Amino acid sequence: MPTQNKNESRRDFLKKSTALAALTIASPVLTKAGENDEKIAALFEQMPLRLEVNGVAHALSVEPRVTLLDLLREQLHLMGTKKGCDHGQCGACTVHVDGKRINSCLSLAVMNEGKKITTIEGLANGDKLHPMQEAFIKHDGFQCGYCTPGQIMSAVCCVKEGHANNAEEIREFMSGNICRCGAYPNIVDAIMEVKKGGQSL
Amino acid sequence: MINFDYIRTSTAKAAVEAKAKSASSQFIAGGTNLVDLMKKGVTSPEKLIDINSLPLKQITADAKGVLIGALALNSEVAENAIIKTKYPLLAQAINAGASAQLRNMATVGGNMMQRTRCSYFYDITMPCNKREPGSGCGALQGQNRMHAVFGTSEKCIAVHPSDMCVALAALDATVHITGAKGDRKILFTDFHRLPGDTPELDNNLSTGPGGQKGELITGIHIPANSFTKFHYLKIRDRSSYAFALVSVAVALEISGNTITNAKLAMGGVAHKPWRLSAVEKFVTGKTATKETFAAAANMAMEGAAGFGQNNFKIKMGKAAVAEALLQASQKI
Best mutation site among A175, A178, A179 for testing chain B: the one with the most B CBs within 10 Å? Predict the structure, then answer.
């Protein structure tokens, strides 16, 4: 785990690098050195992180500032989880952490140590789609599809939480997922059908 | 986002000690506001102290009331059987705020510590006395439709956006705090501040722009009550997942048709949850009629002053108070 001292030394290190960079207008060699300093300093700031994603255990090394969303997409290459607004306003990044739906863009990856993460890639069972995925296809619950992974992840929890008893309740408890194409009526229909189907989710 | 140091702590003592070692550190719980502010460059702590492992998640009730741990999630509080049956106003207010995802991340303590803010605070290219003391207030003569009509100063007219806090202000809650010098309790209504000349201080744990004292909220206590009639009315630009333009929390006891006890607070109108103590006194002992509610609503908005775009809040506030009282009184 990084210490305060390490952080301070990194800040000093970067200050020196910046000073070097100021001299580099005349010297490309020094520019190169500055870039390397940054890379080396970044390595110092990484910390170990263990978590499980879609049933697979990962032992990773991340900077504290990396969000769970960026970790999933950029380090684990799970591109199903989408970056929409990156500020918790659109819901495209919704994933399950220990069974609860959250906005992965506002969760630092390091805050998820030891947690079980489920993304849209982990919902189907082999080639057999999850009932919510089937229902979204049947009811045409999307148009461009960008918000769909977040909508589906959110919808699964909406039913599990017991907040899908009628259309009004579904609209209220799905309000954290924005669809700019306006597929809302079909999304509500898909969720209603899964709720009525009573399958185990 | 500027990188930072990150540590995890498992006791309140360790968290407070870690905080004391670094003036520019901040506690992080859900992070739904803090991470966002860090992404925008509004705040850049050198160190985050993760307090999520602290044993502060319990909700326990006794004859005197209920104690909600500071780390209880907003969603857990809203779904808790004790809260739903004995303090339904709180459950209703929490569910009126944010989205299901955010309520699964946000904690009770974090909800209180979210910044009182407006779009000028969030935009680092704009002046804002709260973010940068002395830089001016962009909202005074600018885009101020969402802003305060009570308790403002020429330094700041931002509002505290929480719904949960409006209900807690109405329900006479107390904040439990721990720090290096021991534990203390303060009334919920004294926790958040009005801007005055120091808008950088949102609440009584603030020390400056983005800074906090080395103290930690451990829980919220709500005294037992016998309110059977309650309502949280929230008026906003869309029907869900938007900040309040105006909101009203009401809890009433009615005997026959006479109001015997009343608690009221408003949201979206001030730098802090706005308790309506004078209105509570006024309605107590009166019959629960539309005439009483209309007079109460007029009284509630006395002294309100708009800044142009938000003038509508004065008329809307009156209508909202009357409607919330009516809805509460009709609760079976």
Answer: A175
